[in-house]
Amino acid sequence: MEEKVKLLKDCRVLDFTNETAFLCGKILGDLGADVVKVEKPGGDESRNLGSFFQDTPHPEKNLYWFSYNHNKRGITLNIETETGREILRKLVENTDIVLETFAPGYLEKLGLGYAALSEINPKLVMTSVTPFGQSGPYKDYKGSDLVLTAMSGLMSSLGDPDKPPVRPTLPQSYMWIGMHAAMGTLMPYYHRGMTGEGQHVDVSGQAGVIWALNHSPSFYDLNKEVPRREGSFITGRSITGAIFRAVYPCKDGYVTYVIYGGPAGKRTNRRLVEWMDSKGMAPDDLKNKDWDQFDIATVTQEEVDRIEDACMKFFRTVTKKEFFEHVLENDMLGYPVATAKEILEDEQLRARGLWREVEHEELGTKITYPAFFTVFSSIACDSWRRAPLIGEHNREIYGEIGLDDSDILRLKRANVI
Prior knowledge:
Layout: E1 5-6, E2 12-16, H1 22-30, E3 34-39, H2 63-69, E4 72-76, H3 82-92, E5 97-100, H4 106-109, H5 114-120, E6 125-130, H6 145-151, H7 172-195, E7 199-204, H8 205-210, H9 215-223, E8 233-234, E9 244-245, E10 247-250, E11 253-256, H10 262-278, H11 284-287, H12 301-315, H13 320-329, E12 335-336, H14 340-345, H15 347-351, E13 355-360, E14 365-370, E15 379-380, H16 394-399, H17 405-413
Parallel strand pairs: 1-15, 2-3, 2-5, 3-4, 5-6, 6-7
Antiparallel strand pairs: 8-9, 10-11, 11-12, 13-14
């Protein structure tokens, strides 16, 4: 087999992002770019976010940092000093992409905005990721995951109808933002390859997370109503206003099962009742129901509740494994809800080679990572290296611009690196 190529093997990236856009640099690193994570002296504040390896709080044992900063090298640099700014300007001469999450105007005040840096390197692509973008009345507002989930409208669709809106337990907005930032960076980088022109990319976190709501317009077009929160239930499938349960507790966790219509749904409903009947748990009204005449569009809530009550009792008697094996063998619709442990043990993911053990020599162990986000026929996408220690690559990267060990020691004492 022909060896796959690193798509971005000749691309140098300076990554000044915080957790809002860590994923952007990681994606570029997965594709082979030389991503250099730039931290302030002493390390990035996000290193103190939980959780930690073996529950030991330490800036270099941060699992969140590991997850989104592997495939990067790391340096420290204080750009609020004149010497630090001069070093950055020197680095930019041979840099293709700069990623940053500073507040709008911050780099301009330091003389390091896109206009200034593009004079040094006209081919430079600079991606600026902020909560609300570089322009508009909100541009100077700060924004966390909570803020962005709320102000994008995403939170309005999450939670139970009789309770306030909720956010996902993990910072999902940062994943949306990081993906959009990576896509927004790769397009002008490709354009640069054709024209030689650099470009400034302005990514708004609020606008990026809005794309998580792209189901809402089509929902309204079909149902002529704004989607509402229904927790783990599904709406908009019946003209009667009936809602449908999507998640059921089972013997050792949860399974996903929805009462469907159409040929696949009718087949699934019939075979589920047959399975229930084999265990003596099928009510007479379900055994006698003509599933060929069952119409999901006109079903009443009362009928849905009767079906779901029987399903609820039955699913509590089976394990996730039993459920999954049965639906596969009988060509039914239904899925177990996997835990993190089950994802790691999943035979499909293992067969595709998703997991890769990455050496953490500083911890004396290996840690398992997802090896790729996409499989390409001729492009390499993989986990190449663990996340950097604080200033781990200062010597080799600053050596490229002529600084020796004595220079690095002097700059460290002066709090420049």
